[in-house]
Every structure is written in C-alpha cells, then in structure tokens.
Design brief:
It contains no helices and eleven strands. It has 121 residues and is mainly beta.
Length: 121
C-alpha cells in the first residue's frame, strides 16, 4: 500500500512557475514508477509526465513538453513536477500516481488526492 500526498499548488500568473511535490508513504517508493496527471473542469484526465523507478528515464505529454520537468528523490520518498512558462490552459487539479510498471498507457495503482493549480491570464 502506498499513500500519496500532493502539495505546492496555487494561483500563479501566466508565464510563472510552480513546483509540485508528492510525498509517498512506505519503504518501497523506489519500487514504483511515478506519474503526474491533471484534470480540468469538464475535461478528461490528461497524462502529464512519468518517471522511472530510479529516475533515469522520463517522458511527457505533448502539451507540456519543454515546459514541465518531473524528478524524484528516492531518499525523501518524493516526486516533483516543475511547472514553467505556465499558461491559463494548464489550470487543473494535478494528481500524482504510482505504478510498479513504467511506460506509456500503463495503469496506475495508487493516486493522491490532488492539488489545484490555477493560472491567471
């Protein structure tokens, strides 16, 4: 069982930056690949980024490539999402998720409760 708690969301102006954190419980954090997703009101959940177990491999959704960066610290049991050059269309609830598998289209077993990011124009 893995419990995930996101933090770091808030209100920011377009062009600004935020860093989201996701703290995981348990001793097996490094056994999980981690992902970030987001969901805006009235829209489907969207994949944002994923990172492999040790952090050596990452991939991103097309809408955030070049602007967002995912990273992890396995000593701190935490995964991060750096959001730069934010746009109003980045406004959403951001969720982190954990899976024992890594790759596009996989299912994630554990989810956090989400953190709101609002970008004003």
């Amino acid at each position: 069982q893995v419990q995930l708690v996101e933090s770091g969301g808030g209100l920011v102006q377009a062009g600004g930056s935020l860093r989201l954190s996701c703290a995981a419980s348990g001793r097996t954090f490094s056994s999980y690949a981690m992902g970030w997703f987001r969901q805006a009101p009235g829209k489907e959940r969207e994949f944002v980024a994923a990172i492999s177990w040790g952090g050596g491999s990452t991939f991103y959704g097309d809408s955030v490539k070049g602007r967002f960066t995912i990273s992890r610290d396995n000593f701190k049991n935490t995964v991060y999402l750096q959001l730069n050059s934010l746009k109003p269309e980045d406004t959403a609830v951001y969720y982190c998720a954990a899976s024992p598998h890594y790759g596009p289209g996989i299912a994630y077993d554990y989810w956090g409760q989400g953190t709101q990011v609002t970008v004003s124009s």
